[in-house]
Structure formats: structure tokens, C-alpha cells
Amino acid sequence: MKTKFNKWKGILILLPILVLSSCGTMTREIYSDGQFEDPIFSANYYTYLPSSLQTATDFSTYQLNESNSKYGEIINNTFTQSLAAQDVIRNLPNAATIFNKLYGDSSTLNDYEKTDAYYEQNALGKINDSFRYGYFSKLTDGLAHCDGSGARVRIQATENGFGTIFNRQLTQYYSFVLALRGGTDIPWGSSEYPVMSDEDSQATIALTISFYIMNSDFATYKRISFTKTIETRTDDHGSNTNILQFYFNDVMGSNVGQIKNAAGFSLNYEILEHNVLKPGGVSQDLPYKFGLMIYEMELPSSRWN
């Protein structure tokens, strides 16, 4: 069983960050697709994308921005509380029950336990049993940050990303939540890279999240994508993650019905700038790698057929 996080000692700067670090220890959990828990950073990339999703046709793309989405840190407990409160305002099923349980006067949880519990309560594995199995279940168990279990609790993605076909179709949906951070194998503390400066800890990525709808031929898919450029500070605290959240109505407006019956999901990104690996947007001939660590994907109060 994964443990809750309740230790944020030594973290003094509370800024929106896409954290670059390794996390935790090796584990023994085995998946049919492989463990992806190798001490060699580049051996941990998970790149599976079903061929039927690779050949999907683009249907529509939506831009996420500061007005229609939220981006913050899981270490900032008030950020998560604001998400829980907004779920109540938006009348999400079970949102009031969850909020009162975590933040009501009778709650005995500390602030970090409340934050943990919000993501646990909204886990897709809790909403539908079909998300409790397979490699993708790493992202549907309610653990939105590193707990010391290393690669067992995350998917490490290259820029080309990864994807999955769901065992169910999405029929009721309100919001989307993603927990992520960055990571590299740059040997900070070595003679080559003795200190990670503020400039070194900057990363900008263009993130694309896609849902897939099966066409009437029941064989091919169309793709609906959401994109966001994340310009953010990074540092070396592996137990912290960033949280991206948006409500589909805010982004899609009258087109919100387009993703009804979504049957698949994928994620990919582009590194736009990194002070060591891609300064000024120019890739360097270096042996070091960047990976996007995805910890959790949630669709609170969703329903599946």
C-alpha cells in the first residue's frame, strides 16, 4: 500500500514548479508491459501508444490558458482546497460530500492529509473498477505525488508520449486533473555540473492532452486535443508535483459534447527551453535526457458505460 505524504521539510520556496528530480527507491511490482524501474534513466521511458490511436484523425484542438485552466503545486494545500471548493460551486456529484469530509469542522485531517485525500477520493480507480488494472493504473490510483516508491507510482514519458484505450467509454464528465513533474539525468553535484542554478532549473514545455472518440466504423478514432504551454520554475524536490486542472465547459463551451463516449487518452509534449538541454530553444549535443513524470490523471465525478 502506498503511503501518504506528510513531509515537506526543507521546501522553502512555494512557486509553481515542474519539479526536476529522481524520487524514491526501486520496487518489485511487475507489470505485463515491463517494470520500467531501471536505475538507468533512459530505460524507464514508457512509450506505448496503440496503433489505432496513432492513425486517428484530428477533430478539434483547444488552447488552455490562465482564464480557463488552473496550474499549481500539490505542496500548496490551499490550491487543492480551492479545487475542492470549486467542484462544490460547479455542483459536481459527490463534491459537497468530499469537501465536508475533508475540510468541514469535524475533519481531523491535517492540511497535507486533506490534500492527499482529495486526489484519492477522485481517483478513476475508485470511480470505476476497470481503471484498477494494467500499467495505466499507475495514473488512476489517487496518488498524485512521489511517496518514495520511485517508478512504481508514475509513468515517465518522452516527448512522443504514450496512450491507452479505455475498457469503458466516458459518458459523464466535468473536469480534468493531471499531476506531473519533470526529471533529468543531469549529474548535479558532479565536477561537470556542481550546482544547479536558478537558470538551470527553468523548463518550458508545450503539453498536449488528447481524448479519442471511436468513429461510426467502430475501427478508427478521431482526436480531440487540449494544449498548454507551461513556463515554470523547477527544482529538486521529488515529492512535489504540479497540478493542471480545467473544467471541460470552460474550455469547450457549446462543444463540450464532443468528448462524450471518449474511449482513449494520450499525452505528449515538446521541450521548448531548458537551460542545459535546450538553451534558447536550441538542442545541445549532450548525453543527458529529460522525462516528464506523470503521477495521476483524474476525471472527478465521471461516469463510464
Per-chain topology:
Blueprint: H1 51-54, E1 57-63, E2 70-73, H2 77-89, H3 95-103, H4 111-121, H5 124-127, E3 155-157, E4 162-172, E5 175-184, E6 202-214, E7 221-233, E8 242-247, H6 248-252, E9 262-274, E10 290-298, E11 303-304
Parallel strand pairs: 1-7
Antiparallel strand pairs: 2-8, 3-10, 4-9, 4-11, 5-8, 5-10, 6-7, 6-9
Any low-confidence stretches, pLDDT <50, length ≥5?
1-17, 21-32
Strand content: 25-35%
- What structural class results from the helix and strand content? alpha+beta
Count of DSSP-assigned helices: 6
Count of all domains: 1
N→C terminal distance = 28 Å
Mean pLDDT equals: 86
Oligomer type:
single chain
Q: What would you report as the Rg, rounded to the nearest angstrom? A: 19 Å
The best one-word shape is globular
How would you spell out the order of helices and strands?
HEEHHHHEEEEEEHEEE
Protein architecture, described:
The chain has 305 residues and is an alpha+beta fold. It has one domain (41-304). 15% of the residues lie in helices and 30% in strands. A hairpin with a 6-residue loop joins β6 (202-214) and β7. The chain starts with 50 loop residues before the first helix and ends with a strand.
Key traits:
305 residues, alpha+beta, 6-stranded mixed β-sheet, 5-stranded antiparallel β-sheet, 6 helices, disordered N terminus
How would you summarize what this structure contains?
It is built from 6 helices and 11 strands. It has helices spanning 51-54, 77-89, 95-103, 111-121, 124-127, 248-252; strands at 57-63, 70-73, 155-157, 162-172, 175-184, 202-214, 221-233, 242-247, 262-274, 290-298, 303-304.
